[in-house]
Design a protein that fits this description.
Elements (H helix, E strand, L loop, with lengths): L4 E8 L18 H9 L5 E10 L2 E12 L9 E6 L8 H11 L6 E5 L4 E7 L3 E4 L2 E3 L2 E7 L6 E6 L6 H13 L8 E5 L6 H14 L1 H17 L5 H11 L12 H32 L7 H15 L7 H6 L1 H16 L1
Antiparallel strand pairs: 1-5, 2-3, 3-4, 5-6, 6-9, 7-8, 9-10, 10-11
C-alpha cells in the first residue's frame, strides 16, 4: 500500500503512522505552525498563460498552467494542471489560516500528497464512548486539491487519515454515510467559486459548532447496539443469514445445457456465504477479541472477520477500504440498523 506522501510532508499528533515516514509529534500544533515551522510554508501556486508556436510566433491560447513553486524537498517548479481564466488559485497558507481561525483546534493529522497537489487536514471531533472503555473517534477533515480536478471537500469520518489510501477511505466512508444532517460529506466546491475560502470557513465553523449533535447521532446508534442483547445463537445466525443469504436456486425453466454450470455457480456462492456466516459466528461465539453478547459484539465480530480473519492471496487493505470486503461489511451494518 503506497503512502503517496509528498516528501516528508506528513504530520501526526501522538499516534504513530503505519508508513513511519516521520515520527509523530508530541506537541499539539496549529495548521500554520506545521506549514511554516516544519515545511517552510509549503509552496505557492500561480497561473501562467499557455502559449503555442504558430507560424514561427508564440501565441497565447487563452488557457493557463497552474504552476507550483519549488518547495523543501523538490527544488523544481511543477505544473499541477491546466485551467481557464475562471480558475482561482489557492495557496496552502490560505487553507491553514482559515482552518486555524474557524476550527480553532489542534491538528490531528496533516499532509501533502503526490507532488503537493493534494492536501488534507484533520481534527478530532468529540469522542464516542459506546460502553465504558470502548471509545469510537470521529474526525473532521478538509481536503483540497491545488489542480483543476479535485476541488475542496469538507467531511467527517470515523477513519483517521495518514496517507493517500486512508484519506480516500475516510472520504468514501463519508460519502456512504452522508445523512444531510451533519454526518459524512458536508460541503464541497470547485476553484471557480470566488468565495470558496469564505464559504469553507463558514462551513468549518458550522461543523465544529454542531459536533456534539453530529457525534450524538452515531453514538446513539452504537449505544443502541451495545444495549441490545442477543437473544440466542439462532438470533445471531438469523441476522447473518439476512446479510449473507444463500443464492436463489436455479429455476425449473432453464436450458438443460446450461443448468449444470449454473447449479455449480450457485453451489459455490452458497458455500462462500456459509463460510462467511460461520466465520463471523465463531468469532462471536468465543473466538473473537473482547466480543460482548449484544449487537455491538456482532458488529465487532463482523469487523474482525473481514479485517483480520478472512484469508486472501492478496493484501486485503484496499479491499477493506474500497472493494468487496467493504461491500460485505456494509451489508451487515445495514441489517443491524434495522434492528435498532
Amino acid at each position: 500500500m503506497s503512502a503517496n506522501i509528498s516528501g516528508r510532508m506528513i504530520y501526526s499528533f501522538e499516534k504513530p503512522m503505519w508508513h513511519s515516514i516521520t515520527e509523530p509529534s508530541l506537541e499539539p500544533l496549529t495548521a500554520d505552525e506545521i506549514l511554516l515551522g516544519k515545511w517552510n510554508g509549503g509552496f505557492t501556486t500561480e497561473l501562467r498563460p499557455v502559449t503555442v508556436t504558430l507560424n514561427g510566433f508564440a501565441q497565447e491560447t487563452g488557457d493557463f498552467a497552474i504552476v507550483r513553486s519549488p518547495m523543501v524537498h523538490d527544488p523544481k517548479e511543477v505544473v499541477f494542471g491546466f485551467c481557464t481564466e475562471r480558475y482561482n488559485p489557492l495557496q496552502p497558507y490560505q487553507i491553514t489560516e482559515v482552518f486555524d481561525r474557524c476550527v480553532n483546534k489542534r491538528v490531528e493529522t496533516m499532509a501533502f500528497l503526490g507532488n503537493g497537489n493534494d492536501m488534507f487536514i484533520s481534527w478530532q471531533m468529540p469522542e464516542i464512548e459506546v460502553v465504558k472503555g470502548d471509545v469510537a473517534q470521529m474526525y473532521g477533515i478538509v481536503r483540497t486539491g491545488f489542480d483543476s480536478l479535485k476541488g475542496t471537500h469538507l467531511f467527517t469520518s470515523t477513519y483517521r487519515p495518514v496517507c493517500s489510501n486512508t484519506i480516500t477511505l475516510a472520504q468514501n466512508w463519508a460519502k456512504r454515510n452522508t445523512d444531510g444532517k451533519g454526518k459524512g460529506e458536508i460541503w464541497n466546491s470547485k476553484h471557480v467559486n470566488k468565495n470558496l475560502l469564505r464559504d469553507l470557513g463558514y462551513w468549518m465553523e458550522h461543523v465544529t459548532e454542531n459536533a456534539e449533535r453530529e457525534v450524538g447521532l452515531i453514538e446513539s446508534f452504537f449505544k443502541k447496539l451495545a444495549a441490545t442483547p442477543v437473544k440466542s445463537d439462532a438470533h445471531v445466525k438469523a441476522l447473518l443469514l439476512e446479510a449473507y443469504p444463500d443464492a436463489n436456486p436455479v429455476p425449473e425453466y432453464y436450458p438443460v445445457q446450461l443448468r449444470g454450470a449454473k447449479e455449480t455457480a450457485v453451489a459455490d456462492e452458497n458455500e462462500k456465504s456459509l463460510s462467511v456466516r460461520g466465520g463471523i459466528f465463531d468469532l462471536f461465539a468465543g473466538k473473537g477479541t473482547g466480543i460482548t453478547p449484544d449487537l455491538w459484539g456482532c458488529l465487532n465480530s463482523m469487523s474482525e472477520y473481514f479485517c483480520h480473519v478472512l484469508p486472501s492471496k492478496k493484501p486485503i487493505a484496499s479491499s477493506v477500504m474500497f472493494g468487496n470486503r467493504a461491500t460485505q461489511m456494509r451489508k451487515f451494518i445495514d441489517v443491524l440498523k434495522e434492528q435498532v
